[in-house]
């Protein structure tokens, strides 16, 4: 008989009739079962009408048959809160009997059902029976009782505490049976993670922690997870405390269940906060953590994805603690897109001078792949690497010019943006890339890449052969372009005029005319008028050609540096305590996503090590970062946010050209910048850190 | 904490308005809205996402959606409002999916992957099973099966998760507890029996499991009827052949709806093994199966990929609570090196008394004519990604390098591992194939000559060796009316018209065999111009993006140039460290031809690379329709060989109470061409010649 037939909404009256009919037989059980199957099917179908059956179903519990009772329990758990007290109360006598039944399964199931119903009477009864159940001789019942307590806490926290049920639960932690202990831990962790009412925290001392660790080998995979999680409540007082535990849980890194592995890693990362220079104390640790993470990459895509996100987190925060070989993160052709995406980010994070060659070869391969978004991201990554690793920049640029020579459109668009960044970072070093790019100027059609090319022409028009034709072509569509492109064109035309007056004059006049007369956008108009005024007022001066205008318009851009702003250590710290959780996927501060979650942080203890600065950086080799630092410091007051930007909207040469309006490069700090620093309260600072973090986490941008 | 779990049927998930059908749901917390709201939001957001954002984790208005996609459009979805442990949720969903398979279907568990990810960790299926798989239609875990068994699944979910907290997902325990009869169509049931009986023919020990399974299913189905007497004769015969009929809990406690074993097992230390198992004869079978992923580029004579996906399958028919100890010849089986003194220390301590010390066949390597399979004694096998079954005591693994475990009953995978041999270029391929495509323009015929050599120990031999040689129909239009001529030293040759491949079926061949030849002559309809052949060849060169190849080609040419323009065969042929130069005569004319054509191109255009590119661009514009898979595929099984060299060195079974003697069986097998592994040769320029 196919159960599929049972799956139809049935009227309560029909079911009742069927039940009555069943009871006319001498052995009603088989028929009753069929009816109950229909009932269960209707629960799944969310048939509200079944409420009417409540009294009948309750009567069925008389029958001494486990299957029937199970279905009845299921029904009651679903409908008891919908009927009024008198009706739902009918079931209580049964439950009262069941919880002291000699069959442990029945005791368990009835307790489970009782605690699942939120009606007052049921809660009342549960409170009455729970104490006995917590001391039941059968571990299975004790386990369920533990959960029942956490359910009760949900229904009525104050009373749960008043009745000292939590304390009793704590006692259960010392139970002889590991399974009971681990499930009690799970129940307790649910209670402690609630924020409503009194905030409870679980603390575990060393001895108990060691006992718990000892249980690891004796429990099933899921219980191990609860035990490992509870170890986060253990606060090591000395370094040896932490090391002892780490030593004991390291074997779990090779567990079959990836959740156990990841939780072990979380635990080790947590404990390593209490060890001074953990990578020196346990030299194999980083290798082990790395290899166990990598071994998870052979699992299903969902798991891989999760692991990769956590690898990013570890690379941002605890780089010293895990050792990865970048080649292991190279994409396989059949990886789902979301995995390729994440892998690309990891490859970028892992790239350094030593592996630059391998990485670049791999990225070049991606760049010629059929998958366009992937290819674009790969090119972006190459460009970012060039900025990040000065010693490999020449190689990067070679790769990019190679790619450009193929003349494939989307590669060109992306390369243009990337080359612009490289030229800004290393002015004058890679001029040979410009003609390569400009060979294909006709194919460049996306606003961002257009802006980049236009900016490059303006900046390097003296070294470009046919820049007149190229610029002519690019501005020919001026009127139809988006505002940013128009602004960029304006600046470039002005620059071109100043550098090559004889050729640029006509073009400039044409563009200024368009800008001032035919464009609606006030910004563009104003900019047009501004240039016009500036250039015409200067022209009258008899001295050198356009001295003042040159001083204003033609100046060097601020240095470009990699995105090395620090992530708030507190946020990183919290995320590290949440490895493997949903927050680790979103890579956002936990409170932003899950408002009710309690904040987790490292508890102070004598052994707690301060976070070192270098850990907050995910940059590359140290030398390289120092260069960045110097650059950062060398432009005295404060350089406006001119980091290498990943998403394009607000980050384009137009922002750099904006800075050219300032009289001198050294006074560019915009008001918005400083005010941002002053105004930001702690809360908003956190938010902005969050933004930085999430941007960093997806540094390549997820657009297009 | 998972708030609710849904099983959906979602056909055409790529379409914007595809309908989600809810097959089943189970709520655990009341903090999420009604399921239609949940599903609506899920669908809507999913379609808005860009392809790279369609990760298995979605966050919609504070509710996290975690989903796993299975076959037949089945989606398992869990929702949570809290910061749940994502990893355990995903693993849980995958386990549930596997569990449903074990309960509801007779098919082996496919990998639940959202976009066809090839996983390497399917369940333990013996090779003989795979062969049959093609012919039998199994009950699949699809929409109908799930809705037919809603009550069962409901109970399962109830037991697997309590209060949003995962309890257990172990089939061996659950099956003792939840014994609701599975609803299968009659048709499927028949298939099941066919499956078991046919597989028993092929290999004795594999079948024993299948039959046991079949019997259990059968009895499950028959419920309380006491099915023993009703067994068909065929089945009885099969049981005799196994010599070993387990007396399991099933038979003893059949009548009780619930036995209390779950209470005992789930709360006892070893919860994957129920107590009270008894077998008349205690046996343990250990299979070390290695799947090779191999890719050889004939053009550059370079091994592009040589990986092993190994697994250790155990079939355990042991009574009581045995403790098994297994040792491998790998010094650090855990994959992590511990300090050396530590391991030495443990070596001394190990009590080998009473154990079965298994002979390692390292010493036999020398007697083989080719000492190609590296002797592994003391050498480090680059094992990676080793994964252990949960029954293995991980701490002794680290400290003593000993795999200690109390096995679950019946079949399970003890460990899986991955060996990448890329860096070991010294290791030669097990089977090497050298094809030559000779195009005779006058007679419009294509001659394919293929030489095969094996390079493993002489005592071993392959099973089911099959070579598939492609004949690109776009290149060589074959005239099917004409007779195709085949000749082979060993085996049979057939031509598959549908896939346009030559099948060279050899079956058994010994190790160390050199130069087994096969020849085929195919009549062509039209003569392909030299140009097209060249194009295709060049496309290959470009496809690889293999700079080293281009460079090599150039240096070769330069050498030839230095020789006065008279290239000799030795130059290109097997210039790597292969120990033998096969079929020189065979290749000679081909080689000269090729040399000349290459020289022409060399003198014609200054740089080879330029020419390649120009041809390449020409080719792109001219012809880039559906590409034909031009790889030679080989599939085979080599029993008693572990390619990586991993061997069991020590095996011991101890049972404290019963103190029985047990019979361990160890088997090695290296296989490829099945499941997810492929053994391929990519054709290179030097495989084609004109005359």
Automatic annotation (TrEMBL), chain A:
Residues 16-537 form the Clathrin/coatomer adaptor adaptin-like N-terminal domain. It is found in: Endomembrane system. GO terms for biological process: intracellular protein transport; vesicle-mediated transport. Adaptins are components of the adaptor complexes which link clathrin to receptors in coated vesicles. Clathrin-associated protein complexes are believed to interact with the cytoplasmic tails of membrane proteins, leading to their selection and concentration. This is AP complex subunit beta. Signal peptide: none annotated. Residues 604-704 are annotated as: Disordered. Keywords: Membrane, Protein transport, Transport. Gene3D superfamilies: Leucine-rich Repeat Variant. The keyword Lyase does not apply. InterPro entries: AP_beta, AP_complex_bsu_1_2_4, ARM-like, ARM-type_fold, Clathrin/coatomer_adapt-like_N. Coiled coil: none annotated. One of its GO terms (cellular component) is membrane coat. Residues 660-678 have a biased composition (Polar residues). Belongs to the adaptor complexes large subunit family. SUPFAM superfamilies: ARM repeat. Pfam families: Adaptin_N. GO terms for molecular function: clathrin binding.
From TrEMBL, chain B:
One of its GO terms (cellular component) is membrane coat. It comes from [Candida] railenensis. It is found in: Endomembrane system. The lineage of its organism: Eukaryota, Fungi, Dikarya, Ascomycota, Saccharomycotina. This is Adaptin medium chain homolog Apm2p. Residues 190-244, 336-376, 541-596 are annotated as: Disordered. Its main location: membrane. It comes from the Eukaryota. Residues 541-557, 568-583 have a biased composition (Basic and acidic residues). The keyword Ribosomal protein does not apply.
């Amino acid at each position: 008989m196919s159960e599929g037939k049972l799956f139809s909404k049935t009227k309560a009256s029909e079911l009742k009739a069927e039940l009555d009919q069943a009871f006319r037989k001498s052995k009603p059980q088989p028929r009753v079962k069929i009816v109950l199957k229909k009932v269960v099917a209707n629960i799944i179908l969310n048939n509200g009408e079944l409420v009417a059956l409540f009294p009948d179903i309750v009567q069925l519990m008389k029958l001494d048959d486990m299957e029937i009772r199970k279905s009845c329990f299921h029904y009651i758990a679903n409908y008891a809160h919908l009927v009024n007290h008198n009706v739902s109360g009918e079931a209580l006598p049964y439950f009262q009997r069941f919880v002291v039944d000699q069959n442990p399964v029945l005791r368990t199931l009835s307790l489970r059902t009782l605690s699942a119903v939120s009606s007052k009477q049921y809660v009342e009864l549960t409170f009455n029976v729970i104490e006995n159940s917590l001391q039941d001789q059968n571990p299975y019942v004790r386990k369920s009782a533990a959960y029942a307590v956490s359910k009760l806490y949900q229904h009525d926290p104050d009373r749960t505490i008043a009745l000292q049920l939590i304390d009793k639960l704590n006692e259960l932690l010392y139970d002889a049976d590991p399974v009971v202990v681990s499930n009690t831990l799970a129940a307790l962790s649910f209670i402690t993670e609630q924020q409503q009412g009194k905030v409870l925290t679980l603390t575990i001392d060393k001895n108990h922690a060691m006992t718990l660790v000892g249980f690891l080998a004796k429990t099933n995979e899921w219980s191990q997870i609860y035990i490992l999680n509870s170890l986060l409540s253990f606060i090591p007082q000395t370094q040896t405390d932490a090391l002892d535990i780490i030593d004991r849980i390291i074997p779990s890194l090779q567990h079959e269940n990836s959740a156990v592995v990841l939780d072990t890693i979380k635990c080790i990362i947590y404990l390593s906060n209490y060890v001074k220079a953990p990578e020196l104390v346990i030299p194999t640790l980083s290798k082990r953590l790395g290899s166990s993470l990598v071994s998870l990459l052979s699992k299903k895509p969902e798991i891989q994805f999760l692991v990769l996100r956590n690898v990013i987190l570890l690379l941002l925060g605890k780089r010293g603690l895990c050792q990865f070989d970048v080649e292991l993160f190279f994409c396989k052709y059949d990886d789902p897109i979301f995995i390729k995406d994440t892998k690309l980010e990891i490859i970028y994070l892992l790239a350094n001078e030593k592996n630059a060659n391998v990485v670049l070869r791999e990225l070049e391969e991606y760049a010629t792949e059929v998958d366009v978004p992937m290819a674009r991201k790969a090119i972006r990554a190459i460009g970012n690497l060039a900025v990040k690793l000065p010693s490999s920049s020449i190689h990067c640029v070679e790769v990019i010019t190679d790619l450009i020579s193929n003349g494939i459109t989307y590669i060109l668009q992306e390369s243009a943006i990337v080359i612009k960044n490289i030229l800004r970072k290393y002015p004058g070093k890679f001029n040979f890339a410009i003609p390569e790019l400009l060979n294909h100027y006709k194919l460049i059609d996306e606003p961002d890449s257009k802006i980049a090319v236009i900016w490059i022409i303006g900046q390097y028009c003296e070294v470009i052969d046919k820049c007149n034709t190229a610029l002519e072509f690019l501005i020919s569509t001026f009127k139809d372009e988006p505002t940013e492109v128009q602004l960029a064109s304006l600046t470039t035309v002005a620059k071109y005029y100043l550098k090559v007056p004889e050729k640029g004059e006509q073009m400039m006049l044409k563009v200024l005319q368009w800008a001032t007369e035919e464009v609606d956008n006030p910004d563009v108009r104003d900019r047009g008028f501004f240039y016009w005024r500036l250039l015409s007022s200067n022209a009258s001066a008899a001295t050198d050609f356009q001295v003042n205008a040159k001083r204003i318009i033609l100046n060097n851009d601020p240095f470009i540096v990699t995105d090395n702003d620090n992530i708030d250590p507190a946020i990183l710290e919290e995320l590290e305590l949440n490895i493997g959780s949903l927050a680790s996927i979103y890579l956002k501060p936990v409170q932003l996503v899950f408002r009710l979650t309690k904040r987790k942080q490292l508890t102070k203890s004598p052994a707690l090590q301060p976070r070192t600065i270098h850990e907050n950086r995910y940059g590359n080799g140290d030398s390289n970062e120092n260069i960045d630092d110097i650059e950062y410091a060398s432009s005295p007051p404060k350089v406006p946010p001119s980091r290498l930007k990943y998403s394009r909207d607000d980050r384009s040469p137009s922002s750099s050209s904006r800075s050219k309006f300032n009289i001198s490069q050294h006074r560019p700090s915009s008001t918005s910048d400083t005010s941002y620093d002053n105004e930001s309260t702690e809360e908003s600072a956190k938010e902005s850190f969050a933004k930085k973090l999430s941007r960093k986490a997806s540094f390549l941008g997820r657009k297009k | 904490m998972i708030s609710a779990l849904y099983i959906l049927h979602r056909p055409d998930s790529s379409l914007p308005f595809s309908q989600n059908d809810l097959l089943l749901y189970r709520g655990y917390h009341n903090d999420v809205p009604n399921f239609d709201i949940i599903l609506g939001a899920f669908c809507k957001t999913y379609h808005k996402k860009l392809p790279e954002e369609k990760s298995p984790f979605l966050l919609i208005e504070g509710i996290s959606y975690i989903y796993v996609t299975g076959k037949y459009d089945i989606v398992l979805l869990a929702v949570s409002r809290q910061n749940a442990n994502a990893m355990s949720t995903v693993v849980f969903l995958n386990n549930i999916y596997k569990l449903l398979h074990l309960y509801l279907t007779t098919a082996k568990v496919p990998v639940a992957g959202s976009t066809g990810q090839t996983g390497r960790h399917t369940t333990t299926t013996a090779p003989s099973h795979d062969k049959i798989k093609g012919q039998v239609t199994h009950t699949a875990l699809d929409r109908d099966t799930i809705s037919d068994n809603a009550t069962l699944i409901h109970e399962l979910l109830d037991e697997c998760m309590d209060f949003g907290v995962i309890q257990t997902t172990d089939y061996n325990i659950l099956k003792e507890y939840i014994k609701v009869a599975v609803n299968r169509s009659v048709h499927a049931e028949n298939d099941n029996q066919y499956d078991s009986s046919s597989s028993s023919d092929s290999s004795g020990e594999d079948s024993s499991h299948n039959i046991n399974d079949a019997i259990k299913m059968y009895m499950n189905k028959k419920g309380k009827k006491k099915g023993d007497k009703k067994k068909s004769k065929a089945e009885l015969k099969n049981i005799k052949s196994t010599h070993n009929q387990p007396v399991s809990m099933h038979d003893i406690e059949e009548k009780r709806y619930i036995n209390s074993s779950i209470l005992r097992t789930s709360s006892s230390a070893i919860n994957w093994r129920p107590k009270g198992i008894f077998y008349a004869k205690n046996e343990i079978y250990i299979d070390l199966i290695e799947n090779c992923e191999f890719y050889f580029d004939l053009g550059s004579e370079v091994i592009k990929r040589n990986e092993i996906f190994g697994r250790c399958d155990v079939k355990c028919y042991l009574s009581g609570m045995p403790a098994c100890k297994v040792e491998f010849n790998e010094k650090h089986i855990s994959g992590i090196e511990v300090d050396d003194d530590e391991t030495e220390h443990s070596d001394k301590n190990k009590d080998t008394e009473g154990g079965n010390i298994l002979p390692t066949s390292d010493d036999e390597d020398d007697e083989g004519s080719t000492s190609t399979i590296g002797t592994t004694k003391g050498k480090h096998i680059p094992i990676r990604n080793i994964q252990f079954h949960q029954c293995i005591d991980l701490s002794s693994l680290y400290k003593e390098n000993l795999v200690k475990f109390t096995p679950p009953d019946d079949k399970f995978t003890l460990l899986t591992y991955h060996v990448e041999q890329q860096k070991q270029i010294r290791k030669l391929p097990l089977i090497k194939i050298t094809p030559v495509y000779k195009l005779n323009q006058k007679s419009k015929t294509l001659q394919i000559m293929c030489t095969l050599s094996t390079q493993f120990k002489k005592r071993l031999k392959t099973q089911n060796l099959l070579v598939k040689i492609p004949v690109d129909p776009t290149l060589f239009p074959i005239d099917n009316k004409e007779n195709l001529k085949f000749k082979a030293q060993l085996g049979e040759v057939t031509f598959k018209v549908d896939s346009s491949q030559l099948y060279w079926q050899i079956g058994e061949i010994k190790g160390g065999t050199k130069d087994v030849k096969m020849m085929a002559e195919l009549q062509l309809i039209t003569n392909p111009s030299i140009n097209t052949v060249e194009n295709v060849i060049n496309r290959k060169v470009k496809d690889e993006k293999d700079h080293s190849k281009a460079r090599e080609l150039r240096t070769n040419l330069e050498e030839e140039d230095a020789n006065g323009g008279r290239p000799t065969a030795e130059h290109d042929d097997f210039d790597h460290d292969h120990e033998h130069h096969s079929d020189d005569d065979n290749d000679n004319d081909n080689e000269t031809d090729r040399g000349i054509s290459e020289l022409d191109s060399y003198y014609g255009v200054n740089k080879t690379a330029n020419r390649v590119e120009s041809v390449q661009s020409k080719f792109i514009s001219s012809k880039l329709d559906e590409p034909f898979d031009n790889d030679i595929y080989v599939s085979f099984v080599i029993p008693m060989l572990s390619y990586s060299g991993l061997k069991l060195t020590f095996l011991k079974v101890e049972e404290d109470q019963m103190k029985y003697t047990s019979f361990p069986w160890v088997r090695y097998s290296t296989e490829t061409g099945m499941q997810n592994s492929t053994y391929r040769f990519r054709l290179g320029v030097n495989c084609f010649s004109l005359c």
